[in-house]
Amino acid sequence: MTILICAAVLLWVSIYVWVNPTKTPYMRSEELRIGGDVDAKWVPISEIAPVMARSVVAAEDANYCNHWGFDMTAIRAAVDSGGARGASTLSQQVVKNVFLWHGRSYLRKALEAGLTPLVELIWSKQRILEVYLNIAEFDEGVFGVEAAARHYFGVGPENLSATQSARLAAILPSPKKRSASRPSNSVRKRTRQIIDGAATIRRDGRAACFED
């Protein structure tokens, strides 16, 4: 039974190397909540402005190319701050959204901890980021960078500027309360930080694992 369960999990994770998870469990729960379809359209990473990918990494997981799913430096910093800051990597967020459910529970955290290294082992870094960019929530009922780019700026994801990309990345921690097209002062400040961060990880090689 244990072997069968492990084989099933391995197959489940492996499928998404080729199959795009266009509707995640969270998207479906949001459809039930809002009473309609969410706005989401899959787009390959080759059709997303490279600066958008760098902006998300700079904002959410600057050491993305240097860890195996868990950023131990960020985890230690979170512990030292008493849990006031997050330490979830892009890989963990993808695992949570594609395979699990939202909400705080020890069971979900345990499953996330087990699945994250497996996803890192089987998927490429570029694939993990591609999935993240297509399933991240950017507003109520708006998922993925293709829908977000058109929703906020009226452009395709391939035409996003550095500022537009940084604004989208800046609202990710709280997409229902923040706006990329009508940014608050805090979002504007965060946008400037992300623009600098995206340029920095490009210069120092921390974008090499997901850029061709």
Features of this protein?
single chain, 212 residues, mainly alpha, three-stranded mixed sheet, 10 helices
Short description:
The protein has helices at residues 2-15, 25-34, 50-60, 72-80, 90-99, 106-122, 125-135, 145-153, 162-170, 185-203, and strands at residues 39-40, 137-139, 142-143. By secondary structure, it is mainly α.
Annotation field: number of helices: 10
Helix content: 55-70%
Which class do the helix and strand fractions yield? Answer: mainly alpha
Report the span from N to C terminus.
41 Å
Strand line-up of the largest beta sheet: 1-3-2
Beta-strand percentage? under 5%
Q: What form results from the Cα inertia axes?
A: globular
Contiguous runs where pLDDT drops below 50 for at least 5 residues: none
Tell me the series of helices and strands, N- to C-terminal.
HHEHHHHHEEHHH
- Total beta strands: 3
- Biggest sheet statistics: 3 strands, mixed
Give an overview in words.
Helices cover 56% and strands 3% of the residues. The chain is built from ten helices and three strands. A three-stranded mixed sheet has the order 1-3-2, covered by helices on one side.
Topology:
Layout: H1 2-15, H2 25-34, E1 39-40, H3 50-60, H4 72-80, H5 90-99, H6 106-122, H7 125-135, E2 137-139, E3 142-143, H8 145-153, H9 162-170, H10 185-203
Parallel strand pairs: 1-3
Antiparallel strand pairs: 2-3
Helix pairs in contact: 3-9, 3-10, 5-6, 5-7, 9-10
